[in-house]
Design a protein that fits this description.
The complex is a heterodimer of chains A (326) and B (372). Chain A folds into 2 domains: 2-244, Rossmann fold (3-Layer(aba) Sandwich), CATH 3.40.50.300; 251-325, 2-Layer Sandwich (Alpha-Beta Plaits). In chain A, 40% of the residues lie in helices and 26% in strands. Chain A is built from 13 helices and 14 strands. In chain A, the strands form 3 sheets. Chain A has a 6-stranded mixed beta sheet with strand order 6-7-8-3-9-10, sandwiched between helices. In chain A, strands 2-1-4-5 form a 4-stranded antiparallel beta sheet. A 4-stranded antiparallel beta sheet of chain A has the order 12-13-11-14, with helices on one face. In chain A, strand 4 (81-86) and strand 5 (89-90) form a beta hairpin. Chain A is globular. Chain A starts with a helix and ends with a helix. Chain B has 372 residues and is of the alpha/beta class. Chain B folds into 2 domains: 2-40 and 175-367, no CATH class; 47-151, abc type-2 transporter like fold (3-Layer(aba) Sandwich), CATH 3.40.1710. Chain B has 14 helices and 4 strands. Chain B has helices spanning 2-17, 19-39, 58-69, 82-90, 104-111, 125-151, 176-207, 209-214, 220-249, 258-282, 286-303, 315-321, 325-339, 347-367; strands spanning 47-53, 73-79, 96-100, 117-120. Chain B has a 4-stranded mixed beta sheet with strand order 2-1-3-4, sandwiched between helices. Classes of the chains: A alpha/beta (326), B alpha/beta (372). Chain A binds chain B through residues 71, 74-78, 95-96, 99-100, 102, 104, 106, 108-115, 119, 122-124, 126-129, 153, 169, and chain B through 2-3, 6-7, 10, 13-14, 17-18, 207-209, 211-218, 370-372.
Chain lengths: 326, 372
């Protein structure tokens, strides 16, 4: 049964000239991947093409299937059906070759906590049959920041430092593709920003980067993003396009009693969605022609004071929230 | 090759930084050799006797003092009521109750025979047997002297008798510690090897480092060799440490070739570590490894003949012991250390350990997958 469905998938690929061309150009090509854990469908028919040199983001909440997809690409997990290639190498058949050309940073800090920074780097360099000096160029910018702590145990580093070390270790063998699973989760805002700057620099060096994140603001920094939810890809586009394509009217509303405000808005028949975004609620109406003054009148009737209602341009988060509801 | 060396080095650094592990490596051999060897002894000492002397004659007192004078027995309590003796047996305070009936001396003189009652707590069958036969021999001796006394002879000797002179080989003084020490050493090596290797692999699983390692081009065999070599070295270090303690503290004679001991030790450890690694490839947490490893250890050690001779086990158990590495190694240790057996005497054990080792290692290699 299993082989049958695999054959079908590959036949499908060869019959379609468009996707075959995609295979040659793409750095990572994912075709109809399915994966279940018992009754739970973690990935449902995922197809994605990631171009060489892209900084591609997988955006989605916990449990969307981002890590599962990455683990399949990293040859750590077998898919139930479908095919995937990394720089033309099949993730099942050519797993040994793939392991030489990819760098991987798992979601959990996975370096030896009882080895020092330098020992960790040396260890992974040796395992990849290379040395720190050989590829020092690539990791120089990052390594310089952690070098003062090179004789400190990895387990004693701060969160941001750990991520930098993990990135250095993932880069030590000069990979063609870099896969990062939620690299900035649990890292402070400054380190997050620095981390993304480093990714941008690596992208400029021609490395294809696939990164997953639950943070919407990071999505804007990617070349293209795939929005994922419950094992499905909702949309793939550049973050700018995704925002442009959002054609609904969006209002920011606040009052002195935010808790009552959100309850009143959600119970009103003309409101479609109301979410808290910082100090404001982002609200859409059922019919897009619902005007700001209608909201205002309704809320004034409900005796909300210090009321503010105004139009705002959407953020990627609004786009995502909107898609999740559809 | 360079990779293997580096993996081994990494493993040693990790052991070096793990204070608990370091302490275990030093403390386990010390404790095992100094405590277990003394504790696990069959030398019978301190048997308490409850005396119920209803006769209170000079003969009965003579018998009692003779028993008390022997190094094995102590007369703990006396009374006239046999039921009191039974109570003490129940409380486990005394091991034997000796009942001397009224008219013991009279019967002995008038009828040339008298009876005694010996109640032995036989919960531990082996100890009871020993206590019984010791007590019996004291009484027999007493009997002989009484006859001699009455007949006015210096000692009673029957006219004919077969003379037996016995010599105990390899352990002429029947020093029980010398028998136990090589066995305890075998346990020591097993414990260290099995736990350290198993823990170290599953720890990588628990901390997730294995995930990072799995995506590297490192070969299975390189990784597993890196896990084997350091722990063989550590376990062999403990073996020599234990041997040294045995030599210094118990004066254990090491008759055989030490090279043979360590050679077989290394071969044995390959199998034991293979088992440890296999268990940890199946398990997900250190807890599971502890549990399963402990189970195997118990079976292997108890069936391996440390306390009880394998020859007196049922046939099926003896067959099972052919696949029990601890059984073979314990035998080798005792044979080489105490008897000075050479390689030629140990071909059977050598083949058995090779097969067992190859099986466990193959299992570990087969089960360790670089994918989840």
């Amino acid at each position: 049964m299993k082989t049958n469905s695999k054959n079908k998938a590959s036949q499908h690929v060869s019959q379609n000239p468009l996707s075959r061309r995609g295979l040659e150009e793409a750095s990572i090509s994912i075709q109809n991947i399915n994966k279940s854990y018992g009754p739970v469908q973690a990935l449902q028919n995922i197809s994605l093409e990631i171009n060489r040199g892209e900084l591609f983001g997988l955006i989605g909440p916990d449990g969307a299937g981002k890590s599962t997809l990455m683990r399949i690409l990293m040859t750590l997990l077998f898919q139930d059906s479908g095919t995937a290639t990394m720089n033309g190498l099949d993730v099942v058949k050519d797993y040994k070759k793939i392991r030489k050309i990819v760098g991987y940073m798992p979601g959990r800090f996975s370096l030896y906590q009882d080895l020092t920074v330098e020992e960790n780097l040396n260890f992974f360099a040796t395992v990849f049959n290379t040395s720190i000096t050989e590829n020092y160029d690539l990791i120089k910018d990052i390594y310089i920041q952690i070098e003062p702590f090179k004789s400190r145990l990895a387990g004693k580093l701060s969160g941001g430092m750990k991520q930098k070390l993990a990135l250095s270790c993932a880069l030590i063998h000069k990979p063609e593709i870099l896969v990062l699973d939620e690299p900035t989760t649990g890292v402070d805002a400054v380190s997050r920003k620095e981390f993304w700057e480093m990714l941008k620099k690596l992208q400029e060096k021609g490395i294809t980067i696939l990164v997953s994140t639950p943070y919407m603001d990071e999505a804007m920094l990617c070349t293209r993003v795939a929005l994922m939810q419950k094992g499905k890809v909702l949309d793939v586009n550049t973050p700018q396009k995704l925002v442009e394509n959002y054609d609904r009217k969006l209002y920011a509303i606040r009052s002195d009693d935010m808790h009552r405000l959100i309850q009143d808005l959600r119970s009103w028949e003309k409101t479609d969605t109301a979410y808290a975004f910082g100090q404001f609620l982002h609200v859409t109406g059922k019919a897009d022609e619902t005007e700001a003054c209608e909201f205002e009148n309704y809320l004034l009737k409900k005796e909300h004071r210090e009321l503010q209602v105004f139009d705002i341009p959407p953020t990627i988060e609004d786009v995502f929230m909107n898609m999740m509801n559809e | 090759m360079k990779t293997i060396l580096y993996v081994i080095q990494k493993e040693f650094i990790q052991v070096k930084r793990n204070k608990t592990m370091l302490r275990m490596i030093v403390m386990i051999p010390l404790l095992q050799m100094l405590v277990l060897v003394f504790a696990a002894t069959y030398d019978l000492k301190n048997v308490n006797i409850y005396l119920i002397d209803k006769d209170l004659s000079s003969t009965s007192r003579q018998l009692a003092s003779k028993l008390d004078a022997s190094p094995f027995f102590t007369i703990n309590n006396t009374s006239f009521n046999p039921e009191d003796g039974e109570k003490e047996l129940l409380k486990n305070k005394d091991h034997i109750a000796l009942v001397i009936p009224q008219g013991f001396e009279r019967d002995l003189i008038r009828e040339d025979k008298a009876s005694l009652q010996l109640l032995v707590n036989a919960i531990d069958g082996q100890a009871a047997q020993l206590a019984y036969s010791y007590a019996n021999s004291v009484i027999r001796d007493f009997n002989k002297n009484i006859i001699a006394e009455w007949k006015g002879l210096p000692e009673f000797n029957p006219p004919y008798k077969i003379e037996t002179t016995s010599r105990f080989w390899y352990n002429s003084e029947l020093e029980y510690k010398w028998y136990m020490a090589p066995g305890v050493l075998a346990i020591l090596v097993t414990l260290i090897g099995l736990f350290l290797s198993g823990m170290s692999l599953v720890k990588e699983k628990e901390l997730g480092t294995i995930e990072q390692l799995n995506v590297t081009p490192i070969k299975k065999i390189q990784f597993l060799t890196g896990k084997l070599v350091p722990f063989i070295v550590i376990a062999l270090f403990d073996l020599s440490f234990g041997l040294l303690i045995a030599r210094l503290v118990f004066n254990l004679p090491i008759v055989g070739n030490l090279g043979l001991v360590f050679g077989f030790g290394a071969l044995y450890l390959l199998g034991i570590l293979g088992l440890g690694l296999f268990i940890s490839t199946v398990a997900d947490t250190q807890q599971q490894v502890m549990f399963v490893t402990y189970f195997f250890m118990m079976i292997f050690i108890l069936m391996g003949g440390i306390f009880t001779p394998v020859d007196s086990m049922p046939h099926w158990a003896q067959l099972f012991d052919e696949c029990n590495p601890v059984y073979h190694f314990m035998k080798i240790m005792r044979m080489v250390v105490l008897k000075g057996s050479g390689f030629g005497d140990l071909i059977h054990e050598f083949v058995a350990l090779c097969i067992i080792g190859a099986t466990f290692l193959a299992l570990a290699l087969w089960r360790y997958k670089k994918t989840a």
